[in-house]
Structure formats: C-alpha cells, structure tokens
Amino acid sequence: MTPRAAELVSELGRLLLGAPLPMSVRCWDGSRTVVDGAPTLVVRHPRALRRLVYAPGELGLARAYVSGDLDIEGDLFAALGFPDDLPSRPELALDRRALARLAGPLLRLRVLGPPPAPPPEEARLRGSRHSLGRDRSAISHHYDVGNDFYRLLLGPSLVYSCAYFPEPGATLEQAQEAKLDLVCRKLGLEQGMRLLDVGCGWGSFALHAASRYGVSVVAVTISDAQAGLARRRIADAGLTDRVEVRLQDYREVDDGPFDAIASIGMAEHVGHASLPGYAARLHGLLRPGGRLLNHAIARGPAAGPDRPDPGSFLTRYVFPDGELQSLATHVQVLEEAGFEVRDVEALRRHYALTCRSWVRNLEQRWDDAVRWSSPGRARVWRLYLAGSALAFERHRTGVNQLLAVKPGRRGADPLPLLRPDWSRQATSDDRRPGAG
C-alpha cells in the first residue's frame, strides 16, 4: 500500500528532531496530520522531500522553502522556534542510514529522482575568498536586491543594522534615529571633524552626522545600488558639500587621517582571516586620539569556533562569505592593532526587536516585496529575519558596539574620566561646536 505523504513527512521530522514533529502537516496528495494549535507545514510537491534527500539538513529545508515547494502557515516564529524547546537542540541533519530505511516509501511516493536545481537566489561566487572582486560580488548579492525592496523592509530610515529602542513602545524609526545619535555621541562628533563611514549603506548615518553634528563625511560602500541612492539622498538634503559617497572598498581608502571612524554592520563581511588587516587599516586611517565605533553581530558563546558553515542557509542565501566572530575575537583584534577598547555595549535584545519590526514590514506589504524582488528573494528575507529574531532572543547570537581609541600623546585622553550617559538623546545644545 502506498503510504500517505503526511505520515512520511512526520517520520522525517521525527528523524531530524529526535522527537515528534510538533506541527500539523498538509501534503500534495491531500493527506494531512493535525496538531491542535500548531502551525502547519505545507509540502506542495514531492520535490521538497527530494531536496532534503540530496541536502539532508538545513540547506535542503531552506531550498525547499525558498523555492516554494515547502511553506509554513500560521505563526512563523513558533514554527522556527520549537527546536529550542527540545531537551537537546538538534542539528537538523539526517544521516544516510535513516534515509535508507525510508527508501521504500520515498520510491512509492515518487520522491526520488534527479537532484533539483537550487533556487536562483542561491549565491554562486567565484575567485579567492575575500578578494576585492569576490567581496564586491558577495555584497552585490545581498544589497543590490532593489532599493524599493529595502525601503519597504527597513522603513523611511533606510538603516539596515540594529536599532536602539529608548523605550519598549518606541517605533522602529524612533529607535533607528536613537541608534544613529548614539553612535555620534560615542564618537564625540563636533562641528568641523572629519568622519569616515565604513560600509555606509544608503547613507543614513552620514546624513545624520553631517546634518546634526556638522562634520565632514567620507562614506564608502561597494554596493552600486547603495552608492547611487545615498548620493541622491545627500543631494536632496543639500549636503553634498559635507558628505562624499564613494564606491570604494575600505582597503582602498588612502586619504586619512580621520578624526573618527564608524563601522556599523560591516565587520561581519570581512572574514576571520582578514580581521587583523581590517583593524590595522582603520588604525592607520585614524588620527592619534581619534575614536573608532565598531558595531558588529557576534557569535554566541555556544556557537563553536569562528569559522563559516558553507552549507548553512545564511552562507548560501543571505551573507555569502560572511563570517561572525565572537566578541572576544573583535576585542583581541582591535587591541592587537594598537587600539585601546574603552567601552562595550551589548544590544542583543534591541536587535531582536529590530528584526521583528522588519518581519512585520515585509509581511504587511508582501505583494509589493515580491513584485520588487522575486518570490524566492522575499521568502529568503522572511526566513532570515524571523530566524535572526529568535537567535537574538535566545542568546545564540549577539551584537555589540565597541568604542576604541587610538592612543595619542602621553598624558592626553580623549574620553572623560567617568562613562558618559550616551543613551540620552542629544539636544541642540549638545550639538553646538565644542560639545560632546
């Protein structure tokens, strides 16, 4: 007798998790299983299971979801979060022996066949890892999706990094403005200073620093789409005399020194082997006594060694060649480059709130998101941001702001004796020349 597909899916789920699948299942053959109050796993085509046979783990599941062969109805966060509630969080991988035991049912349901092609949204990079050319391709894969898509996702601020919520009820726009101002205050920006914005995105931080603090900004990105829109926004704000946007890698900047450097959400793209060179480069571009603000996502304490997983969903679809390091690694690299790390602030809970806000933006305008990117790309971002929110909420991933100083002349110190209350929003008096 041919088995029902839903029963086979439930068995595959049990093998993946080491526990019963706590989700309802609905399959292409009309079969279903029901778990009251649980989200529903929808398997639209046998190809979804075939993807799991050829990539028996996270990658196969991701390919099935991105392609639309697999879907989730109901609470996406509950569907992605239940493995954390199991006694031992599974690795989401099937061994070949488990699959072999299910060969008969897989054959009878016509699941087996040639390996399906990966969805077109999967990254395919060439060249030496973290070379200038390959890094540009990796950045293009993630950021050159379409400015309309990112406006929808991020909201009017166009800030694609962790917001800073001054209170739980703050809007995303209020929280992003608070983050931009927090960075300015930590850097001690004053009118007339020269600031380098490394990985400037669509120019939001450069705009904030130039308009609110009167600094001169060199903003660099290697994304064509970001550079083009950032230049238009700066021109519209009448700030072309204060902000220069360059389509340039930070390794190519050679016109220091700068009074301050901000690197917000960029170090994740550098790679473990290149981090010492990154820190040394920024140290060389900063004047003695200048401040560096390095804002970066960090691997959680239980995440294992600082090395990328080539088979992960994030590596294949979201951040190709991206590598998360531990907080300890970031501190060590900055210190070995000659910086003195003066302050560390963990923003993990803020990033969970930020990611949930982005998911809401995406889901509320889903049809527009699909129209301005592709069905697969919109599904990549929905899965990525929902999973990221859970990772931050459950301590698997963190994000930190490190304030570091390049030591100056003996006896001079650019920071006050006591730690300032940087969390306080700046007033117009705080932004007057000489304040900070």
TrEMBL record:
Keywords: Lipid metabolism, Methyltransferase, S-adenosyl-L-methionine, Transferase. Pfam families: CMAS. Residues 427-436 have a biased composition (Basic and acidic residues). The keyword Methyltransferase applies. InterPro entries: CFA/CMAS, CMAS, SAM-dependent_MTases_sf. Gene3D superfamilies: Vaccinia Virus protein VP39. One of its GO terms (molecular function) is methyltransferase activity. Residues 414-436 are annotated as: Disordered. It comes from the Bacteria. GO terms for biological process: lipid biosynthetic process; methylation. The keyword Cytoplasm does not apply. PANTHER family: CYCLOPROPANE-FATTY-ACYL-PHOSPHOLIPID SYNTHASE. Belongs to the CFA/CMAS family. This is Putative cyclopropane-fatty-acyl-phospholipid synthase. It comes from Blastococcus saxobsidens (strain DD2).
